[in-house]
């Protein structure tokens, strides 16, 4: 009899435990599907942020290369004697390694076999009379304004749209003035 009582007490406990946990048996298929859809939207949002950051990091690399080329060009001008600086505008093309080319076509041809390189157009403007808006050429001038503008060539990123009539956002411009020593 004691054995029967213990069996019925055990059976009663099992039934009470099962009755109390029927709502806690697990997730339904609908709940799981909704959770997966929400997680998919979060993952897609994160993936688009990766694409966005890669795009802008690439553009930052172009801007850094442009700045390095502009500084290199400006240093060459600073090391040139004042009397040897002719006025006017010249354009030269460089690749990412700093190799100079006379035309954009030669630059493109030079980098075809090397992946990851890009051409940059460097426009040097030496104005013998910086007080006027036009670029003047005057051999007797004692003050020259020197401007170097470097713009990456080829495929552009979306943010590199025209900022004004001639330059884009990724154009780097360095300006200085040189005076004749007496």
Main sheet: strands, sense, barrel: 5 strands, antiparallel
Question: How many discrete structural domains?
Answer: 1
Characterize the overall form. rod-shaped
The overall average pLDDT, rounded, is 78
Uncertain runs with pLDDT below 50, 5 residues or more? none
- Overall SS class: alpha+beta
Number of helices: 3
Strand content: 15-25%
Any idea what the radius of gyration is?
Answer: 35 Å
Provide an overview of this structure.
The protein is α+β, with helices and mostly antiparallel strands. It has helices spanning about 1-20, 30-80, 105-110, and strands at about 90-95, 100, 120-125, 145-150, 170-180. It has one domain (about 30-180).
List keywords for this structure.
182 residues; alpha+beta; 3 helices; 42% helix; 20% strand; rod-shaped
Describe the secondary structure blueprint for this structure.
Blueprint: H1 2-20, H2 29-78, E1 88-95, E2 100-101, H3 104-111, E3 119-127, E4 143-152, E5 172-179
Antiparallel strand pairs: 1-2, 1-3, 3-4, 4-5
